[in-house]
Each structure stands twice: as structure tokens, then as C-alpha cells.
């Protein structure tokens, strides 16, 4: 699968189950390890945000906080990648 091909559109993310989001997130992270880019890191952030905003995870404060911290890290990676590209 080419790097630029999205697994799902942003609108589709809210309709996925948390388990499916986690599976796609894992695939994106593996792709990032092979082909580091700011764009891939930003897509990882989108999936993480979809996870912590998912209504099924509402009562799980520990997972919510863990995903928020993970999103912050991936935002930093995206910014670092964008700075290197310029």
C-alpha cells in the first residue's frame, strides 16, 4: 500500500469501533517506522484523537489520558518531521 493512501477518511474514523481504530493505528505506526514523514505522523495523531474522543471510551479515564499523551508525542514527531523537510 503506498504511503499516501489513507486507510480511512477523517469522517470515517468516528464510525469505527475502538478495536478497528487500534488495528489501523498499529498499521500506520508500522508504516511510519519504515517511511518516516510528517504526513504519516499527522495521520497517526488523527487516529489517536479518534480513539480518545470515541464515545465508547468515555468512562475509561486511564485510556483517555494515555491516548492524549500519545497524541502529544506524535504531534511533536510530526512537527519535527516538518522542520526537517524545510
Explain how this protein is built.
- The structure is a single chain.
- With 86 residues, the protein is an all-alpha fold.
- Helix content is 71%, strand content 0%.
- The protein contains 4 helices and no strands.
- α2 packs antiparallel against α3.
- The longest helix has 25 residues.
- 20% of the residues are buried.
- The N terminus is likely disordered.
Summary tags:
single chain; 86 residues; mainly alpha; 4 helices; disordered N terminus
Number of E strands: 0
Count, helices: 4
Please write the string of helix (H) and strand (E) elements.
HHHH
Q: Which percent range fits the helix content?
A: over 70%
pLDDT under 50 segments (min length 5)? 1-6
* Overall SS class: mainly alpha
- What does the overall shape look like? globular
Strand content: under 5%
Ends distance: 26 Å
The largest pleated sheet is described as: none
What does the radius of gyration come to? Answer: 13 Å
Average pLDDT over all residues = 85
Amino acid at each position: 500500500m503506498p504511503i499516501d493512501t489513507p486507510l480511512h477518511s477523517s469522517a470515517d474514523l468516528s464510525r469505527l469501533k475502538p478495536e478497528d481504530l487500534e488495528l489501523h493505528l498499529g498499521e500506520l505506526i508500522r508504516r511510519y517506522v519504515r517511511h518516516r514523514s510528517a504526513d504519516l505522523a499527522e495521520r497517526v495523531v488523527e487516529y489517536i484523537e479518534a480513539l480518545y474522543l470515541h464515545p465508547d471510551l468515555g468512562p475509561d479515564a486511564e485510556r483517555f489520558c494515555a491516548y492524549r499523551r500519545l497524541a502529544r508525542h506524535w504531534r511533536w514527531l510530526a512537527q519535527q518531521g516538518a522542520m526537517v523537510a524545510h
